[in-house]
Fold each of these.
Amino acid sequence: MTKETCALRLSKVHRRFGDYVAVEELDLSIADGEFFSLIGPSGCGKTTTLRMIAGLDEPTSGTIEVAGLDVTRTPPHRRPVNTVFQHYALFPHLDVQENVAFGLRERRMSNAEIRPRVDNILELVGLQQRKNHKPRLLSGGQQQRVALARALVLEPKVLVLDEPLGALDLKLRKSMQALLRQVQREVGITFIYVTHDQEEAFSMSTRVGVMNGGVLEQVGPPRDVYQRPETLFVADFVGASNHIPVTVTGGPDGNYLAQFGSHQVISEGPANLVDNSSAALVVRPEGITLTAPSAGILQGTVTDTSYSGPQEELTVDTPVGKIKAVARGALDCKIGDNVGMTWDASSSWLVAGSAKSGPAKSTASDEGDRATDLVDGSVAS
Amino acid sequence: MTKHRSLWLTGGVTVLVLVLLYLPIIMVFLNSFNADPNLAGWGGFTTRWFSQVLQDQRIRDDFITSLTIALATTVLSLLIAITASLWMRSASPRGRAMLDITTVMRLVLPEIVVAVGLFVLFRWLDFPLGRTTVIIGHTVFLSAYATVVLQARVATIGTSLEAAAADLGATPWRAFRRVTLPQLYPAIAVAGLLVFTFSLDDLITSQFLGGGSVETLPVLLLGLIRHQVTPSVNAVGSILILITLLTFICALALVGVRTLSNLSSSRTESEEE
């Protein structure tokens, strides 16, 4: 990426709180107009990263550049970066209009200049009817839109959004996601979006970055991150996955042969796997096709089923551990049934390193995360 | 049955306490219109005592003195309280504990101890006693009350709004002016009201630190009743009551009944929904 097209560049950004390393040697470049999401569990350092970009926190070392300018030590009020805060942080003593006009007034604009801008942006977020209301009279979704308008009206180089939809219910989230996407396309401002909801991140972003324990584990388009996870953590975090410990050897067409027990399957994987090294074979539940009990790659007994509307999720006990699979269509499985399972080389992926077998614990941690989100979104992450 | 009885008991005690609290005030108020100069009984309605009081140059001077001291004390105490409670947010735990101790000490130490201490100090410094020393004396202990009120409010509003203001381009000073200060108005009104009325009716500090040259209304009243409770004493008392009531009503009108009552339940406005 050249300097001109780079809206934001973090170089070796490090942030320590005492002995605790919140963000470790983070390198990241974000292009102009990109919708970039940072995802990760609570406490992974994504909010700290965001605060450093906004200037509300300073890195211990490393540099932050916005549109080619070093802003590492620039106070927040002099950065071309604006924030949509997790809990909106609307000014309760000002009405919607004045909340939105706040930053423009700080730029010493006249009323004549301010009014059309405020009206335009309120129109964009659909709140022109409410411009004389105090924030406390608005619903959560409306407050969120005021927070968005207040930041957008300043036309920042970079807009950072800190779990902006965390406090909203599912339906409102969906419509706000659509609004955010639409607004981002219309204004063309670079969005940096922090969330721990990978689905939300995937559906909105051009690229996502997955953080864990202060480290950026993988950056890429949602499809790559989902289908070609570089670490087991990423595989776990971006949706349910099964891990099977395997030994890899080179296979046909740049693919690998993965061996576990007496089985040998062909799988795609990263280019740098060493022959006879141990790895984890990652298979998504939806990549698995159920077969007759005696056929397929793996056989096992159904121990649990859960119906979620569009599909039915099965847990199957196999010699390599519990495997999650998805049954679609008319397949009717009951607990205790014997089934066979198969998958294509293209729906599995290899991750270097050894793995515990069985389905990822990701679903559990994922739910835990959402629960904390509902209870208290203010947990620093 | 028992339920009824306990209701009678608590109700009765409440009424008794209210009567004991307010009866003297009502008596003072009524007697200030009593035409009987000996206050032996109701001698008819008169406003004579008021006109007498208003024409008395000494009372008028003392009244002005009291108001000046109360106003100056209020302004100084509020400045100290706002600065201290904002500083508290970023202070180290140790510094915070230190400030808390000095605040609490000023609240619990008997006023006379502080007054005597300051008296000795001023004497030792050869600082002439007068209006200034009374204002300093009042500020020393009344700023503690103001600090307690403001600290509670500052703690509930947090720093997120200031961060938002900074993010939107406001310098720290502008963020304080446009965001933090408006959030503090109710607390400032309450603290100011407390300090103003406490200063207005203070006797001990005023007497110790006023020296011979400064006399406030309460000091004058004390002098007057040493000889005899005259109806004019009641009139001065009534005027003091009215001033206090007026300040209270002004504060209410300024910040609104709701915000004021919200403050006591220490909720932030954003949590009101």
Note: DSSP finds twelve helices and no strands in chain B.
Amino acid sequence: MTTLLTILFDGVAYGMLLFVLACGLAVTLGLMNFVNLAHGAFAMTGGYVCAVLVNNSGWPFFAALPLAFVSAAVIGVVLERSLYRHLYTRHHLDQVLFSIGLVFMSVAAVDYIMGSSRIFIKLPAALEGQFDLFGVGIGRYRLMIIAICGLLTLALQLILARTRFGSRLRAAVDDPRAASGLGINVPQVFALTFAFGCGLAGFGGALSAEILGLDPYFPLKFMIYFLIVVTVGGSSSITGPFLASLLLGIGDVAGKYYVPKMGPFVIYTIMIVILIWRPNGLFGRTAAR
Amino acid sequence: MTNPHDIAEHAQRSSRWRPAEFAFWIAAVACAVLFPSRYLIMTDIVRLALFALSLDLILGYAGIVSLGHAAFFGVGAYCAGLLALHGIINEPVLALLAAGLVATALGFVTSFLVIRGVDLTRLMVTLGIALLLEALAERFSNVTGGTDGLQGIEMQPLLGMFAFDMFGKVGFWYCLTVLFLLFLLARRIVHSPFGLSLRAIRNNPLRAAAVGIPVNRRLIAIYTVAAFYAGIAGALFTQTTALASLDVFSFERSADLMLVLVIGGTGYLYGGLIGAVVFKMLQELFSTITPQYWQFWIGLVLVVIVMMGRERMHRWALWLPRLVIRQLRLMKSPAVASGRDAS
């Protein structure tokens, strides 16, 4: 029973992390319909920025986290304005090729600058180890992740549903032409959203270095996970991707624990079955746009 | 052009062999004679060309974007490897066919999953299938050899007569022959009414269905055929390198394949072949400059191609050949040209 709860706890932490990593992609891919396979590269950027600041410059971990966000967001907005923006209306094949190209470049570039081995971020002592709660082992770091990511999710939901920017974004996604007719600066809204999504990925990348591992192949290794979160979760709201990432997190942790050798096999099978059953995702709109 | 007779004649004319095509194949054979020390890399190019031809059938002719075409390549590779390793089918040509058929069967089964859904779902499902097979191959490492791959494959002589040699001469001619035969078949397929209907589906599935083309059945058929081609390419890989490891399923292989096809251009069969030559040369060039980081430059090429626009790139690349051809035509028939100018 306690193992089950520990697995559940670890799975939730893992899922929350995946959500923060992938929710930017949920907007670009799910809402703006842009197949961005390079999303993991932004996460990797954040992770490496955080690692360099903490390990080499001696910054405290919590001060480096916002910088991971900012650096990934800045790179995101630069790339969006210079490259991505031209591809919004292009064929999916072009988008796939372009983003694969970016992934290859980022992998080789990080390999060149930082070396190919796995990198660890020095954590503050307060976050290490675990404590027992009714016999269930609770990792401190994972508890922090759940807290931070939970708050972030709430904030995101509020921003999307309650603020003026949220309604502008929803309008711009639903019908860009009508939205720009109403005076909404659609390209600006897209650029800001893209940058914010990249920033979140960078933030998630910094948080995930401890759990997922950080090396130059990060964007390739976790690409499929991000895509699963978005395609399985559907694109109607952020609750879909959120639930999907929780499911994926718990499923992956449980799979690795109970059937260690079949772990990835289970995940991929479930993904294919779900996509066959509901091509627009579990919580998606029923009609294809 | 509305007359059915005219359309048939037009289709027939477009399926006729052009001089440039003869020149292409003569050049391919000439390369083999001219560079006897480069058999290994040329074999590599030929195998890649066959694999790209396979992707062109579904991407260029049916418009299915696949991120997991390596699945069939890998299945073909492992089949050929296992057949040779356990001595089940010793004759390489028969083993090649058997491996191709296994890939075909897999292609047929998975085609039902792929034809459902929109572009994005297809991407995910094809990618998922390749990853699934990779996970399976890793899981059953007692059969596949795991990360070490199949070891100790020994190939029997081809047709009982030609033993595979160290320099790869036999391997090269074997691959080139297979490529040529399969190319003829593909050429026949895409110029048939079946191939024309595929193009209609690619351009507009809804309209194609409205004029009475059974869209799903056609897509299943071409996907299965493409799986056969990819399986053969994989089997050739194992047979000529005596090697099969987990990376036959890797995502990079599928991604590189797309680059090959995009360099060469989709939807005219030669795209994959030309793309394979250019890609391998680029790869050689980049890995001599930076042995470890050649992937960066490959990525850059992809980005540049997309930003420039695929059509524009091909227009630029073909500018010189077209100019030459036009000049030749003018020289050959000045009367016709001047007559056209007058009217």
Note: The mean pLDDT of chain A is 85.
